[in-house]
Amino acid sequence: LRLGGADEKQVVAALETFKKRNPDHPRAKSTTIEVIGVALGEVIESLRTGLAAAKEGDDPVKRAESEFDERILTPLNEQIAALQKQYEREEKAEKEERKDWLKKNPGKKPPQPTGPSPSEITLQALTNAELSRIALLYVFGKELPAEAPRRKKLFEAGLAYCEPFVRDRYRYTVMLYRG
Known about the structure:
The chain is an all-alpha fold. It has helices at 8-21, 31-52, 60-104, 118-143, 149-167, 175-178.
């Protein structure tokens, strides 16, 4: 889904249509990231423009930080939390289903899956959202002036979010390709 030159409302509308037409598609679970990417571009552009034309008493960095929190971090953290809950529900349901099947069919091997399970698809979307959060923290932090106090905090937060991926890299199949 590529929308060159589209504004945020057009992206949201196109993504909602995509989600309705393809509710089981892995990309439908992570459409918020697409919208956040558009918003990040706008926030960075606003920061650059504000820094270039800053007037006395005007604080474009604070304004950009506030926009970043409101338009990028909050929705992304909400999506990550929702995906985490969904993953836990799906994983629990799959375990219960497997347990029930084994009770009904003692001594038999369960059938092999024909594709990724719903929890695997959700886990992939969750992992991508978490990796996107790391990238967004880095990209925005890099745009802030070196003396901005928030810059170091964003980098430290990104580093903390990286730790599980580095520590348990074999658990995250995406890290085999993105590491």
